[in-house]
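thread: overnight batch results

M.L. [08:02]
morning all. the overnight job finished for the chain we discussed friday. pasting input first so we're all looking at the same thing
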Amino acid sequence: MPLRKLNLVVVRSSNPPALAEFYGRLGLHFDLHAHGNGPEHYSAEVDGLVFEIYPALAEATATTSVRFGFAVEDLRGLLTKAMDAGAQLRTPPRDTEWGLRAVIVDPAGHHVELTERSPGWRVVRQDDNGNEFLVEARLTLEAATALAKEFEARGHKQLYSVRRETSS
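M.L. [08:03]
and the structure it wrote out:
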């Protein structure tokens, strides 16, 4: 039977309270936990995924080589909060096939992908009178760009543009 869903991510930090505060400023809500004789750690749940921050007991337990990501609703707004909370910008926002994406480095050194999912891209044709018509929707950026170029190469006088779908 195949794996169905990732449900747990555990990171380690030399300063778990500070890292929990950082992610708390980005919208995660942590509780302090301890299981049996295990160490106290911070735990938050997001859409069925448990995200935990444990203390790094030695250099060998560092998890900074692990990269993880979060889907977000407002990438630029969240980036501002992250930078104000001590993150470093690793990769500035750019459109990708997965949506608007940026990578930050959290205060513990983890690379964190933040992606604002977009419904997709569309190609719109504008005629000589300024009327606009939908050619095709729900495309990747690459497919929409290729389709617009294909129509432009046919020599029509109309203008073809690629636009991000809006969620409303």
